[in-house]
Amino acid sequence: MQLLRCFFVVAAFSWVSLAQAQGPDKSGKTEDPPAEQAEVRFTDDSVVRMSILQERLEIVTKYGKLAIPTADIMKIDFGVHVPAEMEKKIAKAIEDLGSENYKTREMALKDLVNWGPSAYPQVVKATKSDQLEVKKRALLALDKLKAKHPAKNLRLREEDIIVTPSFTVVGKIVTPTLKAKAENFGELDIQLGKLRAIRWLTTAAELEIALDAGKYAMQGQWMATEFEVKQGMKLSITASGQVNLWPQNGGYQSGPRGWGNDGFGGGGGQRAPGLPYSPGTLIGKVGEDGPMFVVGDSYNGSPNREGKLYLHIAPSPWVPNSIGTYNVKVVPKGDFD
Known about the structure:
Jelly Rolls; alpha+beta; single chain; five-stranded antiparallel sheet; Leucine-rich Repeat Variant; about 325 residues
């Protein structure tokens, strides 16, 4: 009996401890999940860095409805989003373009031009109307829209393009607003009609590595880094250090730009075996089968591919055992294309 009583005491204590570890704190609040950092581009081309608080987005596609966690999204290119009430007003104004009343026709034309990018897709559709009066005035409205608004703001695509690491979704986001937080504005509910694009910044961290020439300056030997490049991501890669391409012969020193390009030797047009680069050149590629590009001591650009970043040192044409190290730093850039 005493043993059984001890068992219940220990079990109760363990249950309470577990509940305290998993439950809310003393204030009664559970810890909020970390916010996703992103650069948000608005339709006026302003860009603001924000924390995305929205947990998931609902998207209607031709294959059904999806709910995608924002933590899984890398980029969104928004189509034209018009609130339901505004869509009704635009449809009524287009109908009024064919009205028998002159003032009604003129007011409809004026409203469509003032509504600008929101009305543009429906106005374009109206230019193909079977009603001659509607078609004629829709063409006039179209000319006025193009004269009043920048071409980049007059968009026809109404579907959103949502890019994730696994696949790209094309559909219509039906979540009415996006919850976000900006440093200078606090928490916001942003209407989708005001958004042009979002690029998440927390999908990749900076990487610093040492690239050993003894291993990666050998023909066909590439370092598979832990850095995942996302489609459209811009990179800044810097490299420093020296490698010796012929240590047995007193040394042919090279920097990341390649032998003869860093002031360490003549080079004489010598190329690495099987590569169109000078020996010692730091080379990169994205994915095992991706095209190669020169990193050198500084690379700023977008590989326009998705996958793991690979690095390689163009090998010596004289001996297989180069020595030395390049110190490489990879920084993802959040700038929009």
